[in-house]
Amino acid sequence: xELASTVLDLANSEDxxxxxxxxxxxxxRGLDWRWRPPAIRRLIASPEVAVLCARCRVVxxxxxxxxxxxxxxxxxxxxxxxxVLLAVEPGLRRRGLARRMLRWLEKSALAAxxxxxxxxxxxxxxxxxxxxLVEGFNRGEYLPGYYQGRLAAxxxxxxxxxx
Length: 163
Ligand SMILES: CC(C)(COP(=O)(O)OP(=O)(O)OC[C@H]1O[C@@H](n2cnc3c(N)ncnc32)[C@H](O)[C@@H]1OP(=O)(O)O)[C@@H](O)C(=O)NCCC(=O)NCCS
Prior knowledge:
Layout: E1 5-10, H1 16-27, H2 37-45, E2 49-59, E3 64-76, E4 81-88, H3 97-111, E5 116-122, H4 126-134, E6 138-147, E7 151-159
Parallel strand pairs: 4-5
Antiparallel strand pairs: 1-2, 2-3, 3-4, 5-7, 6-7
Helix pairs in contact: 1-2
Coenzyme A is lined by residues 26-27, 85-88, 93-99, 121, 125, 127-128, 130-131, 134.
């Protein structure tokens, strides 16, 4: 896919269906679908949560197509932030989109006075675990049955401002 541009932008409620679909297909595969459109709309409306979208534009001789190519969700606490969800459409991977979204969310956390981010990632998701390691996260606790009692996870965390 030839990308003309990608702009990062906060989600609005019209993005909820696409985000929910991406979550179901790319993050929750093999599990019950938890992040359905109403749950995503609640995240978008929450003042403690940033739902970030990568709005992509593809130009061909015939037309310009705009679509949501990825998203990231971060929940801001008092002194730490939690990366809840992050995904990029399969055809758009390894172009730095997830890195751009993560850096945007990290900057927002730093601006809010937050010095640490944590997340859970499926133990069987070697690609995502490698992405987080490259992005400076440490591998933490192993959590058997973390996802719906069926799939294990690793907790990972990163101290901000150290790189
Ligand atoms: C994990 C994910 C978000 C990465 O998105 P991406 O846009 O492809 O990542 P980037 O292009 O920003 O990758 C930056 C670097 O991370 C590393 N990386 C990313 N994906 C990787 C993979 N599958 N295997 C190994 N390293 C990987 C690489 O070092 C990469 O740099 P490079 O391409 O120059 O080698 C994407 O694969 C995805 O959506 N997966 C399904 C959903 C998911 O697992 N989400 C995370 C858990 S919630």
